[in-house]
Every structure is written in C-alpha cells, then in structure tokens.
C-alpha cells in the first residue's frame, strides 16, 4: 500500500512515500523565501507548494493514482480527540477560511485534498489541537480565558507508543511525562493513553529557542500599553523572536550551546532553559500524582545529550528518563493512515471533531 505523506513547514514542505510502514523516499522541498514572502496569507502558497509536491511524485516515477492514500499533517483545527481523521470539504473550508491561527500545517490537508481530487482517501493524524485535557487543567483564573491544548501531539503520541513498546507495555497502560524540545517546547502529562495536561507551546511553559513561554502577566500588560509597540510587534516578541533568540541572537540551539562553552551569558541562558523545562516536567509529574513510569525527552534539541543531562539532573528521581532525539512525524502520519487502510482503526469524521475526550 503506497502512501504519500505531506508535512509543510514555514520554509519547506517535507514529503515522503511509504510502502506500508516502510519509507521509500523522503525529501524536504525547499521554497524560495522571496517567493513565499510575496504572499500575504499562508493559504496563497497552496498552488506553489502543490506544484512542488506533484513534481516530486513524478520525479520519483509515480502517479497519484498509484497511491492508496495521502497522509497530511493536521492544521490548527478546533479541539479534537487523538486519532486519524478523514479530510472532507468542510475541514478544508475550515482550514482555509476559519482557523484562528495562520500556520504552515494548515496547508497540508488543503493541498492533499486538492491533489486527490476525490480519487483516493486523504487523512490527517493527531494535529496540534488534540485535546484530552482534564477539566481542572482548563481553568486559567479568569472565566474569559480558558487554557488550551496546543502541543506537538503528532510526534509526542508516536514517541509515547515507541517508549511503551520498549517497556513491553501498551501506551494505554502507562503514565508518562513527555517533553518535545523543538523551536517551541511542549511538556505533556499522559495518564493511561490520554494527554491530560499540556503547556500550550505558544503561550505557556518554559522559554524555547524562539518563544518566551509563560511571562509575568503584569509586566506583559505594561509592555502592551506602553504605546511603543504594535500588536504584531508584541506578538512576534513572544513567538518567533522570544526565548533564546532574544538573548543570544540565534534560534539554533547547537550554536547557543557552543556559545555557552565560552560565554557566561550564553551559559546562563542555556542553563535557564534547561531549568525551566525541568520545572515544567516536575509540575506534570505532580499532575500524575507522582505515579510516573517514564519521563521522555524528544525533538531536535534532544540530539544534544549534554543538554538532556542538564534537565535529567533535576528530574531523574521522579522516573526513568528516556531520550528519543529528533521527530518522527512522517512515520507517524504514514502509520496513522495505514491503521485506517488496514481496518485497525476507523477514520473519524469532521462532525466528531468538536467532541473532546
Ligand atoms: N544536534 C543538535 N543539538 C542541539 N540542538 C539541535 C540539534 N539538532 C537540532 N537542534 C535544535 O533543535 C531545534 C529545532 O528542533 P526541531 O527540528 O524538532 O524543531 P522544528 O521542527 O523546527 O520546530 P518544532 O519542533 O517546534 O515544530 C533548533 O533549535 C535546532 O537548533
Ligand atoms: C503549538 C505546538 C506546535 C508548534 O509549535 O508548531
């Protein structure tokens, strides 16, 4: 069963072809930043990216009709249960016109649906808005604001299943705290297969290579009303230009860790990020009432074992720590589609998407 996988990022589109769960080829199709900047809205990039994907398929010697399904990264959808969903015209309409957050991942299902043109099924699996939070976690302290479950759910759920396998158990039988350390950072508590609390990786938790995470709210209000910044400038300060890049001028953690070897300020910033991640992990361990089978560190930054050690020295007493560097999004998307094609799981439909766990 051939599956075409589509995963758009801000400046590239990752594509892969799987035969069952075996990856045949994966490529990162780089888009010219100047070309992308011509578009005011991410959705206007649809045709450019679609053409690049179709060219890739042809260059690899395939035709769209050869595929059993297209597996796409899920975009910013309303809160929904974990699992694989069939892409429908309504979902495409939501991603194009109604989603509250402009994010490159919104393009995946839109492009997949257009490429398929009704000829083969199109699926998304575990989008950013997977929501299995317990009710206590939703309260922020003011009724006008609810905490939201936005996290690197696709990689986190895939890694959870791999670690469970390593432990000879099922994900549904374990309690875990899983931290994805990428450009943004998601720290998540899992109770028997449900992600019951997460720091919203855009707004809360530790600072990351390019985001501030949680901030002292009184100072944020002062900044917002200082008259010195526009709304967009402030937003960029928090997401995109906040965190490590604000202190050190780079969002590349490899560079920051190198700088920290010679420079006291850089060392403090790197150590502070590890400290804040550990603090968030500790909080998630208490959400699980201290019954934690595994703490898992994943994402690009987890490639640096010295950085992982910095976190580990704070949290190692809570549970065994597993390091699973990198991300497995393409594999997770292919496997999600495959489970449905093999009849192991039924694809959920749009109408069910508004139901949370
Ligand atoms: N070997 C490494 N050592 C330390 N940091 C690394 C290493 N490889 C990648 N990174 C860092 O990981 C971060 C990006 O991680 P990753 O590739 O998981 O994120 P992304 O896909 O860009 O963003 P996100 O995971 O938030 O969607 C960057 O800061 C990058 O410098
Ligand atoms: C909000 C979590 C996902 C992302 O950062 O892209």
Automatic annotation (TrEMBL):
Annotated keywords: ATP-binding, Cytoplasm, Kinase, Nucleotide-binding, Transferase
Molecular function per GO: butyrate kinase activity
Identification of the protein by name: Probable butyrate kinase
InterPro entries cross-referenced by the UniProt entry: Aliphatic_acid_kin_short-chain (IPR000890), Aliphatic_acid_kinase_CS (IPR023865), ATPase_NBD (IPR043129), Butyrate_kin (IPR011245)
Catalysed transformations (reactions): butanoate + ATP = butanoyl phosphate + ADP
Enzyme Commission code(s) on record: 2.7.2.7
PANTHER family: ACETATE KINASE, BUTYRATE KINASE 1-RELATED
Entry's family note: Belongs to the acetokinase family.
NCBIfam families referenced in this protein's UniProt entry, alphabetically: butyr_kinase, PRK03011.1-5
Gene3D superfamilies: 3.30.420.40
Gene that this sequence comes from: buk
Subcellular locations according to the entry: Cytoplasm
Family annotation (SUPFAM superfamilies): Actin-like ATPase domain (SSF53067)
Organism: Thermosipho ferrireducens
Enzyme class: transferase
A Pfam cross-reference name: Acetate_kinase
